[in-house]
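Hi C.,

You asked whether I'd gotten around to modeling the 365-residue construct. I have! Everything is below, sequence then structure, no commentary in between.
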Amino acid sequence: MSVDESLRELSRLVRTANGVVVGTTVQRRRRPDPATYIGSGKITEIVNQQSRTNFTTVIFDDALSPSQQLNLEEAFGVKVLDRSALILDIFASRARTREASLQVELAQHEYLLPRLRGQWQHLERTEGAIGTRGPGETQLETDRRLIGNRISRLKTQIKSIRKQRALQRTRRERFGIPTVAIIGYTNAGKSTLLRALAGADIFIADAPFATLDPVTRRVGSGSTESFLITDTVGFMQKLPTQLVSAFRATLEELEVADLLLHVVDATSTAMVAQHATVLDTVSDLGLTDVPMMTVFNKIDEGLGDGGQPILSESELSTLSFPELHGLSGELCYVSATERWGIGALRKRLLYEFFGSSLTLASEMP
């Protein structure tokens, strides 16, 4: 993903967190400054923008070390965050269930733990003064111990949730119902597609990470020719490792899926990079052996009068994306918001599992 695309994505994340972007800047260096990530000249440039923009927070698109974050806050005189901290903040605001809340809290504590030293640096500066050195170190160690204990409890609670989910999956497998897991880059329209396919009454929003918890619904007619489809948390470049680890319980839904439905935002100018990010994440999770079907969503921008695509379905089926590596199998084209192509996609999914025995009586358009 290009620097401009990455910054646009960061700006969208800021707006999702109810922030306002008042300016952006880029510095190209051979290597980051070990103390401040950016050079002294760029720091001065940003400080000089304070009087014009009145910014209250500076957000970096890449990960900062705890010492870099502390040094930058001293230089700017305002809060400094990196992309990881921003995403964690968004996740915290979107957590609606106990499971999501536990996972987000775990990720936040794991992110905070190595940054505790900066919280007590004002005491360490008076090192040697009577009545200051000891309390400072004691408070720091106390906080570390408290956070460490909380992390252990959170991991235990999440482990319990994983066991419950494993039991639920075992019950589903006992009945032999096929399962489909929707994956894709965040904001590709996964939740909207689930609602269109299954009539699911779920929360959707035109914003990154609208869904944190897996939502499962049944698709099909009757009990014999149907499958379960699950919406999962979206992927993103530079996703904090703490979140990938904490949401392992949610991502386990992918491990038992019979089919991965990869939803691609066909309108995104960063489609190639987003597609590659999803495939890389699938590979990192060890899911390359699970069959995958690719669905290009949001083709409604090419709809003509009457809500029909300017290209016919046969023309759409001949489209190729040579710039997208890793494409295999049948490609589908839909507009989840306009419900175009949803019936055809549902039939293809049912045929994938039931073949010529399919007796679906009617389909939604």
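If it helps when you're writing up: Confidence is low (pLDDT under 50) at residues 120-136, 358-365.

Thanks,
B.
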